[in-house]
Specification:
The complex is a heterodimer. Helix content of chain A is about 30%, strand content about 25%. By secondary structure, chain A is an alpha+beta fold. Chain A has a six-stranded antiparallel beta sheet with strand order 1-2-3-4-5-8, with helices on one face. A four-stranded antiparallel beta sheet of chain A has the order 7-6-9-10, with no helix packed on it. In chain A, helix 2 crosses helix 3. Chain B is globular and about 50 Å long. The N and C termini of chain B lie far apart (about 40 Å). By secondary structure, chain B is an all-alpha fold. Chain B is about 60% helix and about 0% strand. The chains are: A alpha+beta, B mainly alpha. Chains A and B meet through helix 1, helix 3, helix 4 and strand 1 of A and helix 2, helix 3, helix 4, helix 5 and helix 6 of B.
Chain lengths: ~240, ~210
């Protein structure tokens, strides 16, 4: 009654692909075949539906209401930013857990949540352009504040936002994955402006990195590390 | 997935409107599907904070990639749930890279199929998959579910269970064949949910017995 297991037949191949059991290279082989073999594609789709059924079988759980409020704020901010950004499609991701280790070291003052965002330029004529967005959303309010990082031209564009800096300056930090914060410099939050992104750290702006804003004495942190309260922090993520 | 007020075709229509940047359609889709996608993220990430982030990212992907749905040959449900699963699994992988999770070996033997009482209002496809999974020996069913929800590939399962890759493949492929035959054929006799013990343990079927 037990089947022999020789080379997988198409049915099994489609199943193991749809359930995510194949390593990347083999999965790509299956995708390529499905793209050129309609009969096989039918099998793959059938098993994708079955995989979905497995997911659908979980009892639903109502998400926190703050989630929808935050999504609304982000989409509002995107809509507001869209004209200026030249129609760039905006994708965003808020992080609280990913940078938890970094945040602990930075004595997080959680007045804001920072929402970093990656956009991929949909224009096929500019395939290399990858921009990252960050949006600061006060946890208790709907207004989002955007930070856009353009890796190609090395500019971090910070949209104006309101902050009670109490005479101190706002300083922007990049926290590469697994590394100490790197200062990107002080900036004025009252107006939209650019903070330069040094060339040698551009490659570190990617999924896994975090951004943070701290309040510092005039001229910026004297120590090279954040000394004042962190008013916003969050991770950068790629979306695939 | 889309039990309640929205039918599957309603959700597909919402996705088409979302592709045209229709915010009310997005709101309606969220209302209809968020509890399901949140459940998926929770199951995979086992953390409400992480699951919330994953679901947020999932809906932002839906918002920006809604136009891709039409190109897929699958249902709206399959498209949405796969985005939710992939997003949560990506997040779990990032997290495990930074936090050094322990071995999953023991987890692999736990069958965490949903409580029968919580299975009201499931789609017929979900019911069929669940019923056919029951055709598998308990440990094989648990392995398959766990691999799927953890996003583990064959080599990763082999590594974590300290089992030869060929053995892992042959076991799982055998399970997939049984599952596929069951799903293609007449649905098996549905056992009453009460046949499963209340503690979640499920009687082994014949194939699970010692041979």
């Amino acid at each position: 009654m037990i089947d022999r297991d020789d080379l997988p037949d198409d049915e099994v191949r489609a199943a193991e692909y749809a359930l995510g059991l194949l390593p990347q290279a083999e999965a790509e082989t299956v995708e390529a075949r499905a793209a050129s073999d309609p009969a096989f594609a039918v099998l793959v789709d059938k098993w994708r539906e079955r995989a979905a059924a497995l997911l659908s079988d979980l009892p639903p759980v109502a998400p926190p209401e703050t989630l929808k409020a935050r999504l609304d704020a982000l989409l509002d901010a995107e809509a507001a930013d869209k004209d200026e950004a030249g129609g760039v499609v905006l994708l965003l991701w808020r992080s609280t857990s990913f940078w938890r280790a970094a945040a602990a070291a930075l004595a997080l003052l959680s007045a804001f949540a920072l929402i970093p965002v990656l956009t991929t330029e949909p224009d096929p004529q500019r395939p290399e352009t990858i921009e990252y967005y960050a949006a600061l959303t006060p946890t208790d309010g709907p207004q989002a504040i955007l930070i856009r990082i353009d890796v190609s031209d090395g500019a971090v564009r910070v949209k104006a936002f309101e902050v009670d800096a109490d005479g101190r300056e706002t300083e922007l930090w990049l926290i590469p994955e697994g590394e100490a914060p790197v200062s990107l410099g002080v900036f004025s939050p009252e107006t939209d402006g650019d903070v330069p992104l040094p060339e040698d750290i551009r490659e570190k702006v990617r999924a896994g990195a975090a951004l943070a804003i701290s309040l510092e004495p005039a001229g910026g942190s004297p120590t090279g590390a954040p000394t004042g309260p962190i008013i916003a922090i969050g991770g950068v993520n790629s979306l695939g | 997935m889309v039990d309640g007020s929205k039918s599957a075709s309603d959700v597909a229509e919402l996705l088409r409107r979302i592709a045209a940047r229709d915010r009310p359609a997005f709101d309606a889709l969220y209302q209809a599907t968020a509890p399901h996608l949140y459940a998926i993220a929770l199951r995979i990430l086992k953390s409400s904070v992480d699951a919330e982030e994953a679901v947020q990212e999932t809906y932002l992907k839906i918002w920006t990639k809604g136009h891709l749905f039409e190109e897929q040959g699958v249902s709206a449900n399959a498209w949405l749930t796969s985005i939710a699963r992939n997003t949560a699994i990506d997040k779990a992988r990032r997290r495990s890279r930074t936090e050094r999770h322990g071995e999953l070996k023991d987890d692999l033997l736990v069958d965490d199929a949903p409580d029968p009482e919580a299975l009201a209002a499931r789609s017929s496809e979900a019911a069929a998959v669940r019923a056919c999974l029951e055709e598998l020996p308990t440990d094989r069913r648990a392995l398959l579910r766990q691999a799927f929800f953890e996003g583990l590939s064959y080599p990763e399962i082999a590594e974590r269970t300290e089992t030869a890759l060929s053995t892992v493949k042959s076991r799982i492929r055998r399970s997939l064949k049984v599952l596929g035959r069951c799903l293609d054929g007449a649905p098996p006799e549905k056992t009453a949910p009460n046949d499963a013990a209340p503690d979640g343990s499920i009687p082994e079927d014949d194939e699970g017995g010692a041979s």
